[in-house]
Each structure stands twice: as structure tokens, then as C-alpha cells.
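Email to the structure team, subject: Alpha-mannosidase model.

Hi all, the expression group asked for a predicted structure before they design truncation constructs. Nothing fancy, just the C-alpha cells so they can compare against earlier work. One-line instruction: predict Alpha-mannosidase, return C-alpha cells.
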Amino acid sequence: MTKKKVYIISHSHWDREWYMSYEQHHMRLIRLMDDLLDLFESDPEFHSFHLDGQTIILDDYLQVRPEREADVRRAIACGKLKIGPFYILQDDFLISSEANARNTMIGLEESRKWGQPVMLGYFPDTFGNMGQAPQMMVEAGIKTAAFGRGVKPTGFNNAVIDSDKYTSQFSEMWWQSPDDSKIFAILFANWYSNGNEIPVEKEAAVRFWNQKLADAEKFAATPHLLMMNGVDHQPVQKDVTEAIRLANELFPDYEFIHSSFDDYIEAVTADLPENLNTVSGELTSQETDGWYTLANTASARIYVKQKNTQVQRQLENMTEPLSVMAFQVSGSYPHDELDYAWKTLLQNHPHDSICGCSVDEVHREMMARYEKSLQVGKFLADEALQTLRKSIDTSAFPENSKPFIVFNTSGHQRDAVLETTIEWQRRPFSEGSPSRLFAELEKELPDLTAVTVLDSEGNELPCELVDKQVRFNYDLPDDRFRIPYMAIYLTIRVSVDDLPGMSWKALAAVPRTPAQKQADRTIVDEFSFTLENNYLSAAVNADGLVTVTDKLSNRTYTDLMMFENTGDVGNEYIYKQPEGGKALYAHHFPTERKVTVNSALTGEILVTQRMMIPSAADERLLKEQESVVEMRSRTARRNDELVPFTIRTAIRLDKNSRQLTFTTTVDNQSKDHRLRVLFPTDLAAETHLAESIFEVVERPNDVNENHWKNPENPQHQHSFVNIHDADGKGVTVANYGLNEYELLKNRKTVAVTLLRSVGELGDWGYFPTPEAQCLGEHTVQFAFSCHGKNDLYDTFIAAQQFQIPLVVTQTDRHTGTLPAARQTLAVDNTRYALTALKLNKANNDIVTRGFNLSNAEPAAVRISMPGYQAHEANMIEAFKDEPLKDTLAPGKIHTLRWTKK
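Reply from the structure team: attached below.
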């Protein structure tokens, strides 16, 4: 009889920050690493230690122990310290597609500076797993993944049918992406601590192994059993080799070895049975009771998610594309600075960080990291703009003009009503005292009554003067001391149509005298409080609800922008409405409407709804938190004290826009509650779509009621969620940093979470988090658009562009080597989402990346870049030995490297 083999892998799952601050965890990491390096020398039987799949641990350690770098390098070279392949252990769903890609790319690059990484997609504690992980791993040369959540193991006695995408009869399985990429996958069915703290005393060891072996064998597909010797922040078990020797004496039918993932994977893949199940797409514990999917972390501390979106959009969609455009002029690209910005951002992406489920100290430090990364991104973008504005020819504009350049750094064409501020006149401090200069410039403001905006061919663009003011500013020249000044600034609103993707267009503002002419039709009918353009009609009713008619498909949607407020006695991980709790709706409270902007270019109606809501949960909640009562068993309800909760929403429609946009501000002085905005659709549909990581995933509207017990079904999104009927008519709800939504059965309603206030971390103890109550003022943004059968993907692109502002830089009138208008990169199909335009670090080839927005249909896509030749590449930017594709398979991630022709 062949012995079963037990592979014991020593590790410590290292959350950089969580229920203690980063530095508290950091100091414990130093002790762990010290112990490891000493143990490698003192115990030759100690095989190796798995460093949790994240290379940042090495940086964190050597920041305090730089003198031990040689010891670290020796341990890695000898195979004692197993590193990589990622930079950090991210949360899949809450960071962007590119952030997921960069985490792998940077992790592999960092790993190879030290030695050979463990080529294992390591997701031990992510809160669900993205559906494109298999394709991303294949693209990175990784053939195996290990994860702890998302799949329900059913055991040998339960039938598993092949069509069941979310269950497996074994802890080993195949995992397949929407493009059919497939990898081997290992589920930590008994968690990544199933071999933790192995006893070295005989009786305790017998009890331990009898239980642990039975648990592992329940799900194992082969005679190779995996035992993970460690858990969260676990110190290394220094006597593990002694414990293994004892286990071999006590259980002669098994062979226990201290091992590594490399050895275990090699052994288990050689003995796989033919009936191994295949799980498909995203794995979010769909076949469970629904309480511990942890998807509500998408709404914990929404301010963190908003800031994350801002920084991601700055780096991915502004700084990098602008730097590529500038590189084509200067030959210089800020690789090192961008690496620094990306690493700083990624440090906020571990699952207990970006998920908002840590103590307050952690999230305070996160906001500082975000700001650091953002400011680097802005600095680099400004440098690129400085290069470009010097090179773009603006000599065609009149002598008295104020030229400025508009950049569309998204991948597709857009029409926009742009608001920007132009410096009109400057007086440096060298000409007099600041106060005198300020007063002199202010006297000139009344004469500035109107401006005209021209393109480089002299065509006049629709334009409005919005504001004018005098204020202080300064220049920081590269070659001399700073120059302070006072200046007149004009804020103008201009309609810029047909601006191609990845392009720029030079415009110029010139003064004019207002002409007496018939006023153009304005956007708002102030009598009926209706916003209207050629695409949409949006009537704001007296109760604040909105009725939208899509003029193109002739379909009307009613009762939109319905604000719902409910209690929450859960925690940062899980929303739990109090038993017997009832929702409060803003349209049942006093509502005011006011037209705040009304012109030919844009219209805006401000809706103010004055709710009164309970100030907090009742006194039972604190007692239940302190006594660590699991949230499902809590009896606390909302208290009887009511406080004002005023919701102010600016509803805006631009001249040529198919999006109705909303900017909602609340001053939250209540605790233990949730605010959502609801968009009933009344569409006959069984499924809906949402943007996820490198895919638009189709999800069922209803849960499996045989398993699901949670009354809520929270889901993750990035820039949008969509629902449409069999005729192709539907709606897309876009957002900015609002990652949680739910598709409600009632009227097929899209519900987007805007704010969630809770007072504790949750999980395994009581950790108060008063700052997670999110008291104070919050502003959120979302948008609504309609579509018919042929323009579904246009609304997806518009939703992504909702997060990407146009970039404007002012310049002067001069000759230049670049034309006044140019497109750097062209994508000819809105079924293709462009996620990156950057340079390859090794040789400065231009890199583009994107994906087919459909998981069901191939997409014919042509991408062109004047003067460059495209080559197929993988996600980590290595050339593929295959011809250039012009049709992308469903769900395909697509990377190209561009060389000069």
C-alpha cells in the first residue's frame, strides 16, 4: 500500500495592517523575519518558509534591518525563503483592472531582483476571486492558483454536475476564465491554517492529526495532502521539524514532510483524477447562505473607495497617456517615478486596507498614501503637459487670444461640455504690492462680459462665460526663482464635440462684446422642472423623483433617484438591517427644487430633500458589540431620536450628452445606517451586467433560494451596472468610486450604495471604529443613461469616461512642431475598453492594453497608432510568437507592444 503524503508548508499570512496599525504589524514582522533567518541557520531540517506571496514584506523588513540584506539574499538563493509572485496580496474586486495587472508585473519584477519567485497565483484571503484570474495568471506564465474563498466543496457523497460553476467535489479543481483560459486551482477547503501549531507532545499530536487528516482527506482528490502551518500574523513554529518527526512515528501509513508549494504542486498535478471538476468565472461564494461573501466591504468607508478611484484614474488614464504623448516629443519617460507612484498606491490595495475593514489608524494612513501617489501623478502629468504645450503649434490663433489645449485621454471619442478656467491677465509682484495689484485687476472685471472660443481653423465653438475673479498664483521655472503674481481668471463653459480618443485639440478664448441676438433654446424648462436635449427628457417631480424618457428608444423610466435609508447593526464587513426595520425614503419628506444653471449648453436642477432619521442604533448595539454577539443574532434596533439628514442633489444634463448626471451631498450626523439610491427599471430581464476586472460579467438577478439566506445580495462593480431586456432596451447606471450595488427583485431596481455608517470592525473580536461611521459631509457622483439594441456598449464607454475628466492646459501663442489637433491612438470599436497606454520599462516600446467588453461575442477591433507597428504581447509585456489579431475572443484581455515603423 502506497503511503499518503502530507506536505507541511510553513507560512504566515501577513496582513500589513488590519486590527492594529501598520507599524504595530510592521514591528511584529521584524520579529518574524529575525526568527526565520536565525532558524534557517540553526535547523537544517527546516525546509522553507512561504512568504505569503507578496514581495513588499522584504522591503518592510529591510527598512528596519538593512544590515540583514545579505542574509535575506542567501535564504532566497538557498530556497529557504519562498517569495512572490505578487507585490501585495490585493483585494481583487475593489481595485482596477490595471492595478491588478501592475501588482503582478511589479511583484514578478521585484521577485526576480532577489531570485526565482514561486509561480503560484496566491489568493488565500481575498474576499471572492475575480473571474479573469485564470487568464491573467496564464498571461503571466503562472499555471496554478490557490485560494481560500469563493468555491463550495461538496464532498464525495454529493452529486456535482458539470454545469455547476461554483462547486467542486474536491479541494483541487480546474478554474476557467471567460476566454476559456484554464489553470489548476487549489482550494484551502479547511482554511490556510489547517496545519497550524502542530503538537510535539504525543497525546496532543494523536488528537491533532486524527482530526486534521480526516478533514483534509474529505476533500482531497489525490493521496497528496496539504497542511498549511501558519495563519494570520503567526510566528514561525520553531519546533515544526520535531513535530513532523513525531507525526511520522505515530502515523506510519502516512509520510509527513516539511515542504513547499513548488514540490506539492508538482506531486499533486502528476496524480490528478480524470473527474476533476471545472469552476468557471468569478468565485464569490454564490452557492452559500450569502452571509459571509464579505461583499459589503465594497461600501465600508466609501471615502476610501472614492479616493482610490481618483488616484487610479490619475495614474492610468491621465498621467501615463500624457507621458506617452510627451515621450514622442522628448524621448523621456518617468519610469522610476511612476513605479514609486504605483507602489505607493498598491500599498493601499491589500484586502483589509482597500476593503475598509481595519481600525481607524489604518485608514488614516491610507489617505496619506493616496495623497502621496496622487500628487506624484499630478506632478508627472504637469511635466508631460509642459512638454506638449511647448510643442503644439498655436500660431494660427489671433494675437489677442488665450490658447489652451484639451486632451481626451480616454480610449474613445467623446462629446463634452467642458468647464475650465483661463488666466486672462497677469500682474507679477515685481510691478507693485500684492494688494494694489489685486485692486487694479478687480477694477477691470466689469469690462469682461463675454468671450468666444475658436478652434485652430477659426471655427467658433458654443461658449459661455461662467465666472471671473482675481486671485494669487505663482510659477516655478526650471532655471530660476519662483514668480508670484496676481491674475484675472475667467471660468468658461464650452461645447467640445467629436473629440477623438487619445487626442488633443488646441482652442483659444478671445474677448468679444455680447451680441444682441435671439437666445438659444435652454436645457431646462423652468416651469415644469424638466431637463431636455436631443436624447433625453428628465422631469424632476415635486417629490424629487425623476422621470426619464429615452427619445431614441421611446421608453420612459419612472421613480428614478429614489433615496433609501435603513439601519445597519452589522460591521465593516457585513451589512445587517435591524430586525423589523423599515426603510425611509427621501421622497416622503419635504422636497425643494431649484434651477441653478440653465443655458444652451447645460442645465442643472438642485433637489433638496430634508429627511429626519434615527440618530443611531439603540443602546443594545454597543452591548452586543462589546460582548462579540455575531451580527445575525443581534437584537438592536434604530433608536427613537430623530436628527436632520438633508440630501442635496444637483441633477445635470449637457447639450449633447446621453448621460443624466447626479452629484449628491449629505451632511451625515447619524450613526449605524445606510443610504442607497434606487433606479427602478421595470425591465423584463433575468440577468444583468456589471464591470469587473478585465470583463463585463453577467450575473443572475435572483439568488439560489435553496442556499441563500441573506436578505441582501450585495455585488461589486467598477464604473457601471447595466440591465436590459430581450429587445436590447435598457439602462446603464454609472458611478464614481461607488463599488457596491444590488439588483432588487422589486421592479428590477438598480440600488447603488452611497454611504454606510458602522461602528466596529467585526470579524473575530470587538474593535471600535468610530471613524467608520463617516460623520460629516460627503459628496458622491453617479449617472444614468438609456440605450437601445445597437448602442449598449456606447453607454459602457460613457460610464468609464464618467470617471475620466478631460485634461486642459493653458499655453501661449507660438509656433511648434506638433499640429494643433492630433490623435495618438485610435480604437475603432466601442466593444473594446482601453485600460492602458504606457511604455515598456525594458526598451521604451509603447504598450496598450484593453479587453473585449463582451463575454459572449467576439469583437472585431482595429487599433492604430501612426508611425508604429503593433505586436501581440502578454499581460507582463513579453512578446507573443503569434500573428496580430483583428478579432478578440469573448472576454479576451489584449496587450500590444508598439515599435516604430
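The CA atoms of residues 28 and 233 lie 8 Å apart. Confidence is low (pLDDT under 50) at residues 157-163. Ping us if the truncation boundaries need rechecking.
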